[in-house]
Amino acid sequence: MSNYNWIEIGEKIQNLFAEDTIDFNEESTYCLMRRYNPELPFSFERYIRLYKEDKGLKFVERREILGNVFMDLDVEKRLEMINFILYYFHKRKINRRRVNELEDYLDLNR
What is the superkingdom listed in this entry's lineage (predicted)? Predict the structure, then answer.
């Protein structure tokens, strides 16, 4: 379907989020992901606790967990989420250079 490097896309999205930590903190990002996977628990803290129990871990990085949730989405859902993120950042006019980098990457790797 695509030649996307999802790790690279995730890094580009995280760079956008770093510009807007008020609207895109870890909890709100998780809620956005819930929009595309309603089976996830409503609480990010609960999800983290269940994830650690399931994997037998004592510590996990929240950023890593968000990456895993994103990667668990099917490609169509990932692209829908990315489109919403692009819409949001265009609407807010936040860091157009980074938005354009992400759009260029997506267009060049279809």
Answer: Bacteria
pLDDT of residue 80: 95
The answer to whether 102 and 16 are in contact (CB under 8 A) is: yes
Q: Where are the alpha helices (DSSP H) in 1-110?
A: 6-18, 26-36, 44-55, 62-72, 75-92, 96-108
**In the chain, where the domains are located:** 6-108
User: Which tokens go with 2?
Assistant: 């695509």
Q: Are 103 and 89 in contact (CB under 8 A)?
A: no
Whole-angstrom Cα distance, residue 58 to residue 41? 20
- Per run of 10 residues, the mean pLDDT along the chain (length 110 residues) is 83 83 82 94 96 94 92 94 92 84 92
According to the model, what pLDDT value does residue 46 have? Answer: 96
Place of tokens 């692209």: 79
How far is the CA of 19 from the CAs of 35, 67, 89, 90, in angstroms? 22, 18, 10, 13
Check if the beta carbon of residue 110 is closer than 8 Å to that of residue 2: yes
